């Protein structure tokens, strides 16, 4: 019998319509996994199992259905790189490392330094300031170069800044845990916008539909707010699905866990409170989208640009709805109690966070 969740899912507010799946998806991720192997991302069976159960190709297909086959392939490769980084570094953050050793402080410092070093190399690979050494960093340089080719300098700058902001969150989280600090929900929501990676996947909405908006349009307040609220909704929604799994490994950066701790309430009551937050974020997202045409009219009367903005906003909305559908159908989310790998259940680090892709040692 499968382990049960410690709570019941609430009645989520989802007024957005589904868009279906990208027709370029082959339902096996054949080329995506072949490219991942070329870059040594799946280094052993544990890593491969983690990637397959995460279904990065399905996530891309349901969230970015309008990308043409070439862009869809590149986006799939980007998503699998993101998960390679995210799963590898997230597993270094929880405090449970230090309870297995006598020299807790030394280990805490070593882990924090290791994460900072890994993030620094990934950042240099993304912004092109140095030649990457490790396989994950080399894969990041390769896919970032491919995505950014033929894009405007303003788009590349905005996109790269968001990716670097995401990478910096790993350092912030490991330092927060090792210092024994925590976040309030008010601090956590904007932090989650960065950790959800959707801050820069909203920029990938332009790439997916073959649009490169004028910079003054991209940074309209309503456009920015739509992207921010959409990314926050997706991140907080993911927290509801992942709370049991993250609690099991003592990863504290989850809206449900923060609410549970701060209010001293049951997990079910915390889930319901977070669902109220999700409903509010959805309303703010829809309000921001509705404001875009008025702000856009003050900037340009170009009908072509107006049509491009409509396509990008539709892609924003599809990503929000697509993540709703992905979570409802992915083993990573709906089978959360059984999701942690065998290695993790045995009290040791899974291979995907202890191998040499990041310079870590078992």
Topology:
Elements: H1 30-38, H2 45-54, H3 56-63, H4 69-90, H5 104-127, H6 135-148, H7 153-178, H8 185-195, H9 198-208, H10 215-218, H11 221-248, H12 255-263, H13 267-299, H14 303-329, H15 331-334, H16 342-345
Helix pairs in contact: 1-4, 3-4, 3-14, 4-6, 5-6, 5-7, 7-9, 8-11, 9-11, 9-14, 11-13, 11-14, 12-13
Which key phrases capture this entry?
362 residues; mainly alpha; 67% helix; globular
Textual characterization of the structure:
With 362 residues, this protein is mainly alpha-helical. The model is unreliable at 96-107 (pLDDT under 50). The chain is built from 16 helices and no strands. It is globular and about 55 Å long. 67% of the residues lie in helices and 0% in strands. The protein has helices spanning 30-38, 45-54, 56-63, 69-90, 104-127, 135-148, 153-178, 185-195, 198-208, 215-218, 221-248, 255-263, 267-299, 303-329, 331-334, 342-345.
The proportion of residues in beta strands is: under 5%
C-alpha-based Rg, rounded: 20 Å
H-E order: HHHHHHHHHHHHHHHH
Profile the largest sheet.
none
Q: By helix and strand content, what is the structural category?
A: mainly alpha
Amino- and carboxy-terminal Cα gap: 32 Å
Count the E strands. 0
Task: Determine the mean pLDDT.
Answer: 85
Low-confidence stretches: 96-107
The number of helical elements comes to 16
Give the overall form: globular
Helicity range: 55-70%
């Amino acid at each position: 019998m499968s382990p049960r969740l410690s709570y019941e899912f609430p009645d989520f507010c989802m007024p957005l319509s589904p868009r279906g799946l990208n027709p370029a998806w082959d339902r096996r991720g054949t080329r995506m996994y072949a490219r991942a192997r070329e870059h040594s991302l799946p280094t052993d069976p544990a890593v491969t199992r983690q990637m397959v159960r995460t279904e990065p190709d399905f996530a891309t297909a349901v969230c970015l259905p309008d990308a043409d086959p070439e862009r869809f392939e590149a986006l799939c490769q980007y998503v699998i790189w993101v998960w390679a980084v995210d799963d590898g570094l997230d597993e270094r953050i929880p405090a449970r490392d230090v309870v297995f050793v006598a020299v807790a402080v030394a280990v805490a410092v070593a882990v924090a330094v290791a994460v900072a070093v890994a993030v620094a190399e990934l950042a240099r690979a993304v912004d092109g300031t140095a030649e990457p050494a490790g396989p994950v960093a080399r894969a990041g340089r390769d896919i970032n170069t491919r995505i950014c080719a033929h894009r405007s300098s303003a788009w590349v700058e905005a996109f790269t800044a968001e990716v670097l902001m995401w990478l910096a969150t790993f350092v912030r989280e490991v330092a927060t845990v090792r210092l024994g600090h925590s976040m309030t929900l008010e601090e956590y929501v904007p932090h989650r916008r960065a950790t959800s990676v959707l801050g820069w996947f909203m920029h990938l909405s332009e790439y997916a539909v073959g649009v490169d908006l004028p910079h003054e349009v991209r940074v309209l307040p309503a456009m920015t707010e739509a992207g921010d609220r959409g990314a926050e909704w997706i991140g907080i929604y993911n927290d509801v699905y992942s709370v049991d799994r993250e609690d099991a490994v003592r990863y504290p950066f989850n809206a449900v866990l923060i609410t549970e701790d701060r209010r001293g309430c049951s997990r079910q009551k915390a889930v319901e409170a977070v669902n109220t937050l999700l409903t509010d974020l959805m309303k703010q997202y829809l309000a921001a989208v509705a404001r875009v045409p008025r702000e856009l009219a003050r900037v340009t009367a170009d009908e072509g640009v107006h049509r491009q903005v409509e396509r990008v906003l539709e892609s924003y909305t599809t990503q929000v709805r697509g993540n709703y559908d992905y979570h409802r159908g992915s083993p990573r989310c709906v089978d959360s109690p059984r999701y942690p790998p065998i290695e993790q259940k045995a009290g040791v680090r899974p291979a995907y966070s202890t191998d040499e892709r990041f310079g870590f040692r078992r």
